[in-house]
User: Fold this.
Amino acid sequence: MTHRFKVNTENVNEYGYRILTNGIDIDQYLRNPVVLFGHVRANHDPTRVVGRCVKLIKENNELIAEIEFDTDSDLGKEVEGKVARGFIKMASLHADVKESSVEEELLLPGQTLATVTKCKLVEISIVDVGGNDEALKLSKNLKEVTLNKITQKPKK
Assistant:
């Protein structure tokens, strides 16, 4: 059984930035499409992998993932059960930021940080509570990244 998740939209998230879906490079991720729980890699422990992404598509400025859970593992079976029963409904991506912009034409109302225009998908996680509808986690070269603050007012 698989489950579909919206992994990214181009809306401003609770942190004040947004990611352009067409700028997400998925090529490397598709070679090893792991799904974790809560972005936890705990010393590269393979038991933290709860599933795999069997299909990843970009449509209508959204990134949609079809996920198959590893029900032969205890954690995978537990997470899949919570998803199937509707207790967990969110997915989140970990993106390695390559480029961002504070150009006015890329800003939306409420946005306080730069728009991520290019990034590399590192992993997808199922999350119990995301910081926003997209629950995005960002890095640059696998280190925490700080996006530029916007100094001009976004278009209305």
Summary: The beta strands are 2-8, 18-19, 24-25, 34-37, 49-59, 62-69, 90-101, 115-127, 137-139.
